[in-house]
Write a structure and sequence with these properties.
heterodimer, A: 112 residues, mainly alpha, 2 domains, 5 helices, 63% helix, 0% strand, B: 202 residues, 8 helices, globular
Chain lengths: 112, 202
C-alpha cells in the first residue's frame, strides 16, 4: 500500500499513463473480437451500383456464368460492366438489377 | 466515406489507387487499405492486371512516404536550429536522434504494414532525425512491398466483405500498438516500483 502511495505521489503521470494505455488496449481487444465475429457472419458485401459483375461473382464466390441471365443478352454487357451500367442499358432501377443478381446467387447456392 | 471512395474505383481506376495511396501515406485520413483490397478483388475478377495494381499501389505508397520524409527533413532542420540553442534541449534532441538511429530501420519497416497507423508520423520523425535517405528508402521499400502484397493478396483471396475485413485489420493494428505502449509503460512502472521498494528496504 505504501509503495502504491509513493508511486502515486512521485510518478502520477507514469501510473495514469499505464492505466489509460491498458484500458484503451483492452477496449481495442474487445472491439477486435466483436469485429471478427461480425466478419465471420457477414461475409457477403452489400451490392453497390459501381460493382462490375465479375467483382460481384468474385465477392459472392460464384461462377461469373451464374450472373449471365441478369444481363438479359444485351450487346456490350459483360462481366466488366457495372450494375449501374446494366441498369441504365436495361432502363430499370439499380435496385431491381441488384435483386435479380441476388436471386441468381441464392438459386445457385441453393443448388449446391 | 468508404463507400464513396469505392464508388470512384471504376471511374478513375488506377489513378484513384495512386491518389489515395500517396495522400494516405502522407497522413491524410483516406482508406488506402480498403482501396488496395478492392483492387485485389479486381485483379481476381480479371478487371485489372496484377502487375499494374501492384506497381501503382507500391509507387503510390513509396512516393507518399518520400514526401513525408522530406517534410520532416526540412521542417526538422529549421526547428532544430531554433530549439538547439538551449544546451539542455540540444542534448535531448541528440538522445532522440540516437534512439531513432538505433531502432529506426525496424520501426520504419513495421510501421509500413503491421503498425500502419503510425506510418506517416514515423516518416516525418525519420526525416527530421537526419537518417540517411538511402537507409530510409530501403527499409521503406521492403515494408511497403509487404503491405501491398498483404492487402492485394487479402482482397484477391477473400473478395467478400472487404469493408468489414479492413475495419477488422485496422483495429488489429491499433490493438497491437496499444499493447506495445502498455508493455513499455508497464516495464517502466515495474522498474520504478523496484526502485521504491529498494529505497524502502534500505
Amino acid at each position: 500500500m505504501t509503495t502504491l502511495r509513493a508511486l502515486w505521489r512521485d510518478h502520477k503521470l507514469l501510473l495514469l499513463g499505464f492505466v489509460l494505455a491498458a484500458l484503451v488496449t483492452l477496449m481495442l481487444c474487445v472491439r477486435l473480437v466483436v469485429l471478427t465475429v461480425y466478419f465471420a457472419h457477414h461475409r457477403d458485401m452489400t451490392l453497390e451500383g459501381w460493382m462490375p459483375l465479375g467483382y460481384v461473382a468474385r465477392s459472392y464466390d460464384v461462377d461469373p456464368a451464374v450472373l449471365k441471365p441478369v444481363t438479359g443478352g444485351l450487346d456490350g454487357i459483360n462481366r466488366h460492366s457495372s450494375i449501374a451500367e446494366i441498369a441504365a442499358k436495361q432502363h430499370r432501377p439499380v435496385a431491381e438489377v441488384e435483386q435479380d443478381i441476388l436471386a441468381a446467387i441464392q438459386a445457385r447456392r441453393a443448388d449446391k | 466515406m468508404n463507400e464513396a471512395i469505392l464508388a470512384l474505383v471504376p471511374s478513375y481506376g488506377l489513378w484513384l489507387l495512386l491518389g489515395v495511396g500517396v495522400l494516405a501515406a502522407i497522413g491524410l485520413p483516406l482508406p488506402s487499405t480498403l482501396t488496395t483490397m478492392a483492387f485485389g478483388v479486381f485483379v481476381a475478377s480479371g478487371d485489372v492486371s496484377l502487375w499494374a495494381a501492384f506497381g501503382v499501389a507500391l509507387a503510390a505508397a513509396v512516393a507518399g512516404d518520400q514526401i513525408g520524409y522530406h517534410i520532416g527533413l526540412f521542417a526538422g532542420n529549421a526547428a532544430e536550429e531554433t530549439l538547439a540553442k538551449k544546451p539542455s534541449r540540444a542534448a535531448q534532441i541528440a538522445r532522440s536522434k540516437a534512439l531513432i538511429r538505433r531502432w529506426g530501420g525496424l520501426s520504419i519497416f513495421l510501421s509500413r504494414w503491421l503498425l500502419s497507423p503510425v506510418g506517416p508520423i514515423i516518416n516525418i520523425l525519420t526525416g527530421a532525425s537526419d537518417m540517411r535517405w538511402l537507409r530510409f528508402s530501403l527499409w521503406d521499400l521492403a515494408g511497403e512491398v509487404v503491405w501491398v502484397s498483404l492487402y492485394l493478396g487479402l482482397g484477391y483471396l477473400f473478395g467478400g466483405n472487404i469493408e468489414a475485413l479492413a475495419a477488422l485489420l485496422g483495429n488489429a493494428s491499433w490493438a497491437i500498438l496499444g499493447a506495445i505502449i502498455t508493455a513499455l509503460l508497464g516495464y517502466r512502472l515495474y522498474k520504478t516500483l523496484h526502485k521504491i521498494r529498494a529505497g524502502a528496504d534500505a
